[in-house]
Amino acid sequence: MLRDLNRSGNNLLNIIILDACRADEANDTWKTKASNEEPCLTPAFGKALTSHIRVPNDSQFVLIFSSDPGTVSFDGRPGGNSFFTSALLNRLTTSKLALNGIMQEVREEILQKSSNKQRPWLHSCLTEEFYFNQGL
């Protein structure tokens, strides 16, 4: 995916947000979001984080996962958004809050809601602050 995004032009900022379990395909928990406390021990897609793709130095990207490698994402209420998506949506329009600040707040909320079992994870090579809403 990053290779394709890099072909779309230089000096672009690419943000990819994935709300999905990061457990191994051999473990059935990858098929649905977690609803229990069963641990997932094997990280999914071992080289998925660009270890084999050269990203140009002038491009900036952020990869945001709803959970740490090898862990699961917990559902919210039935028919609603997950803990992660709800927390993220509640902060995207906050003015003058940079992406790193948004993710810190989301991470704190998810850790609290999941009793420290789910921690959103950020992989970034930003060279400057990014704001979804810079305000006036």
From TrEMBL:
Annotated Peptidase C14 caspase domain ranges read 12-131
Biological process GO annotation list?
Answer: proteolysis
Q: Name one GO molecular function term.
A: cysteine-type endopeptidase activity
Mind telling me which Pfam families this protein's record contains?
A: Peptidase_C14
Q: Which InterPro entries match?
A: Caspase-like_dom_sf, Caspase-related_regulators, Pept_C14_caspase
The name under which this protein is listed is Peptidase C14 caspase domain-containing protein
Species of the source:
Rotaria sordida
Q: What is the lineage of its organism?
A: Eukaryota, Metazoa, Spiralia, Gnathifera, Rotifera
